[in-house]
Write a structure and sequence with these properties.
single chain; 171 residues; alpha+beta; 2 domains; five-stranded antiparallel beta sheet; 2 helices; 49% strand
């Protein structure tokens, strides 16, 4: 199962002392149950809020999550300066993925070889590979395991994720 993790690089400047706000543009309604906490810091303040995805899109072959970022901007002492509500797009990355390489189940075994008796109870061997940066063997085994599977494109993955969002929005 692919676990999708939103990575947000939030670079906010807090030079002004007035409240910061922006009206959200009209978009598909976000699914509140998928709100992800987002925090960011700068030399003169911080941001704490949530990102709620409303759709997934592709741009230059990369998968992006588009949704509403809502939160509070605070100054360096922690006092609230204002609130932010705006539509943003953030890159989506795939976290460490595991794939099952082998699942072998051997039933009980009884051997009687000229007086030598070997009894073996059930054996269950599971080998799992983990895909991630630096996991050379895990990456290789997962690639080989899924060699004949159709690798989804960023556009195909965006369509699948949008379908999942639509289903969650109906709950």
């Amino acid at each position: 199962m692919i676990v999708v993790t939103l990575i947000a690089a939030l670079g906010l400047g807090f030079a002004g002392a007035g409240p910061a706000s922006a009206a959200p543009s009209a978009a598909a309604p976000p699914v509140a149950a998928l709100a992800t906490p987002i925090t960011g810091t700068a030399d003169n303040g911080s941001f704490a809020g949530t990102f709620t995805p409303s759709k997934f899109v592709t741009q230059d072959g990369n998968l992006l999550a588009t949704g509403v970022l809502t939160g509070t901007v605070s100054d360096s002492s922690g006092a609230p300066v204002g609130t932010v509500t705006r539509d943003v797009s953030m890159p989506v990355t795939i976290a460490a993925v595991t794939c099952q390489v082998l699942n072998l189940v051997l039933g009980p075994l009884h051997l009687d070889l000229l007086g030598l008796v070997v009894d073996l109870n059930q054996v269950h061997l599971v080998i799992t590979a983990v895909q991630a940066a630096g996991n050379l063997l895990g990456n290789l085994l997962c690639a080989i395991t899924h060699l004949l599977d159709g690798t989804p494109t960023a556009g195909g993955l965006a369509a699948l994720l949008n379908a999942i969002l639509a289903l969650l929005g109906q709950l």
